[in-house]
Design brief:
Elements lengths: L8 E5 L7 H11 L3 E6 L1 H6 L2 H8 L2 E4 L5 H15 L3 E6 L5 H5 L8 H24 L3 E11 L12 H24 L2 E7 L5 H4 L4 H11 L7 H12 L10 E4 L10 H5 L3
The structure holds nicotinamide-adenine-dinucleotide.
GO molecular function, one term: enoyl-[acyl-carrier-protein] reductase (NADH) activity
Protein name: enoyl-[acyl-carrier-protein] reductase (NADH)
Keywords: Fatty acid biosynthesis, Fatty acid metabolism, Lipid biosynthesis, Lipid metabolism, Oxidoreductase
């Protein structure tokens, strides 16, 4: 390990179980010397195994529904007290679609569900940043990362309304990133990750098919949750301090492929 995050403090949202990308990130940040508070919704704290992660990484868990500004304000205040100062890094690793869960087709959405998913998966990122910004809770040269998926730019039919939410999320990163950069020297980026076998990932219809397809298309194969954690660690470190307003493709090269030989062979 490289001690890349020694002396840095943060908040990590979205560790549900050991498959979660946020879980792997918390483990890697801990190994690199960073200290942090873990957060998730009250229901996910009850259902998941975040307490084990807290024990393993010597960190505290603070419940917050990421759609509630009051919860986020409480979280940020408490986090600064617990970790003993302002914040250097934040991971937003939150996503959920009720239409996906209920199996509603993209052309047959229940708009109450659509709005809920938009609020949880996209607007929550704005809320997290607005609370941090107003409280002046970030240290200069801090780094904020949210996780996205390439369905923000290209059509993946079964990704459903999450495609639209990811497009909105990436736009928030750019728009808020401008003000955070200009006013506080804080950088904001999204990492667009390969399909990954997690609770949220596996909830998408046809997931087994498209994770296998992406793996055969990408010259390096799919990036794992651990690979994503490592990339995020580098984005939290001082080695990437001039990178901001970017959607960073972390997909083994998938996004620049037209077709691969392995996929061609299936049709020949
Ligand atoms: N798994 C994939 O294939 C994949 C690919 C690209 C991007 N992503 C993104 O990575 C992020 C993390 O997902 P994951 O794959 O690790 O799955 P996951 O199911 O482990 O994590 C999703 C998290 O969102 C949290 N969450 C849901 N509603 C919330 C709320 N109201 N308040 C606070 N937290 C809430 C859940 O409790 C859970 O911890 C998501 O943004 C997801 O869209 C996943």
């Amino acid at each position: 390990m490289y001690n890349l995050l020694k002396g840095k403090r943060g908040i990590i949202f979205g560790a549900l179980d050991e498959n979660s990308i946020a879980w792997k990130t918390a483990e890697r940040v801990h190994e690199e010397g960073g200290v942090f508070v873990l957060s998730n919704s009250p229901a996910s704290i009850r259902m998941g195994s975040i307490m084990q992660l807290a024990q393993k990484t010597d960190s505290k868990v603070i419940a917050a529904d990421a759609t509630s500004v009051a919860d986020l304000e409480n979280l940020v205040d408490q986090a600064m007290e617990i970790i003993g100062g302002k914040i250097d890094f934040v991971l937003h690793s939150i996503g959920m679609s009720v239409n996906v869960r209920k199996g509603n087709h993209y052309t047959n959405q229940n708009y109450e569900y659509t709005e809920k998913a938009w609020n949880v998966s996209a607007v929550s990122f704005h809320k997290v940043m607005q609370v941090l910004y107003k409280k002046d809770a970030m240290n200069e040269w801090g780094s904020i990362v949210a996780l996205s998926y390439m369905a923000a730019q290209r059509v993946f039919p079964d990704y459903n309304d999450m495609a639209d939410n990811k497009a909105y999320l990436e736009s928030i990163a750019r728009s808020f990133g401008y003000f955070f950069g200009r006013d506080k020297k804080v950088r904001v980026n999204t990492i667009s990750q390969s399909p990954t076998a997690t609770k949220a990932g596996q909830g998408v219809k046809g997931f087994d098919g498209f994770i296998a397809f992406a793996d055969k298309m990408a010259p390096l194969g799919n990036a794992s949750a651990l690979d994503c954690a490592n990339y995020t660690v580098s984005m939290f470190s001082d080695l990437t301090k001039m990178v901001t307003l970017q959607n960073l493709l972390h997909d083994g090269g998938f996004s620049n492929m037209g077709v691969s030989q392995q996929v061609m062979e299936m049709f020949e």
